[in-house]
Write a structure and sequence with these properties.
Largest sheet: 7 strands, parallel
Radius of gyration: 19 Å
Bound molecules: uridine-5'-diphosphate
Helix content: 25-40%
Shape: globular
Length: 329
């Protein structure tokens, strides 16, 4: 029996696929390569190029391979783009997941682990954020992820499948091997943007807003290493394989760092001055997003180990300095 990683050529998908193969799992990857990279796919995984919105593609894949569980990363994930092109997000994220569920039901595949996001909460009610807190997304990206969670809930109820939804906070860092890492185009995330400065690809990094109600005036986020996220997906598959009930878990390391602290740590790691320019707030950014991951720790036995900001940025830097232009293909 195999594990199918949908979107396994993307950032978090490729790190999860790599960890699965290291653990000896038989891994199948499907990706349309719109945002994913062929060279991020582990060598010993079987790769199918195709789109989850294509029922015939999934039907054929599920006929050829004996899939025990699906890990679903195949979605668009740029918040800003989702605001200007919401239907693109509804089409891929929501309609794609509907087609996927139809194919899973047809082939009696009953376990799925799914990447959700802290963006499902919107402006938080409490810090740290609990899974039971209010969900009120402030952008179409978060809205489609929340709608996907609900589609899983009702489908689980009707068709007897079980799911785990993992709400990530700020995914970052790269595999210790230095062979895979983060490569978005366009890049919008803080750590890769900061590292473009010592890589000579930009003059400075912008700090979006310095008048937030936080100790240094800049936004606070919960940065979680991608290898720790990968471990959580594997634990979630094992949880479902052992008969665990459908559930939702936050994944963060429970410590918040400000934009200024992240830049300062990157200066230390790279030994580069990294000039920063203070600019206006970016629309829709809450001041503070920090997870409670107590539930994932208790129920899944998850234990994030790469939790120092310095280690996270060091691993990201190992990747970016050797791959300043991302992947070849
Ligand atoms: N940020 C920033 N400058 C940038 C990119 C991001 O100050 O060039 C800030 C952003 O406002 C947020 C934090 O860095 O407070 C993390 O942003 P990112 O886009 O990486 O992740 P998000 O929290 O939006 O998921």
């Amino acid at each position: 029996m195999s594990i199918l990683v949908l979107g396994g050529a993307g950032y978090i998908g490729s790190h999860t696929a790599l960890e699965l193969t290291r653990g000896g799992a038989d891994v199948v990857i499907a990706d349309n390569l719109i945002t994913g990279h062929k060279s991020a796919i582990p060598k010993n995984a079987r790769f199918y190029k195709g789109d989850i919105r294509d029922f015939d593609f999934l039907d054929e894949l599920f006929s050829k391979e004996k899939i025990d569980a699906v890990i679903h990363f195949a979605a668009f994930s740029l918040v800003g783009e989702s605001v200007t092109a919401p239907l693109k997000y509804y089409d891929n994220n929501l309609c794609g997941t509907k087609v996927l569920l139809e194919a899973m039901v047809k082939h009696k595949i009953d376990k799925i682990v799914f990447s959700s996001t802290a963006a499902t909460y919107g402006e938080p009610e409490n810090i740290p954020i609990l899974e039971s807190d209010r969900t009120c997304p402030t952008n179409p990206y978060g809205e489609t992820k929340l709608a996907m969670e609900k589609m899983f809930k009702w489908s689980a109820n009707a068709y007897g499948l079980r799911y785990v939804s993992l709400r990530y906070f700020n995914a970052c860092g790269a595999d210790a091997s230095g062979t895979i890492g983060e490569a978005h185009d366009p890049e919008s995330h803080l750590i890769p943007l900061i590292l473009q400065v010592p890589n000579g690809k930009r003059e400075s990094v912008s700090i979006f807003g310095t008048d937030y109600d936080t100790p240094d005036g800049t936004c606070i986020r919960d940065y979680i290493h991608v290898t720790d996220l990968a471990a959580a997906h594997i634990l979630a598959v094992e949880y479902l394989q052992k008969g665990g009930e459908s559930d939702i878990f936050n994944l963060g390391n429970g410590v918040g760092y400000s934009v200024r602290e992240v830049i300062e740590t990157a200066r230390k790691v790279t030994a580069h001055p990294i000039p920063a320019v203070e600019t206006e707030r970016r629309a829709g950014d809450p001041a503070r997003l920090v997870a409670s991951s107590a539930k994932a720790k208790q129920v899944l036995g998850w234990n994030p180990v790469h939790d120092s900001l310095e280690e996270i940025i060091q691993s990201a830097w190992n990747w970016h300095k050797n791959h300043p232009n991302g992947y070849d293909e």
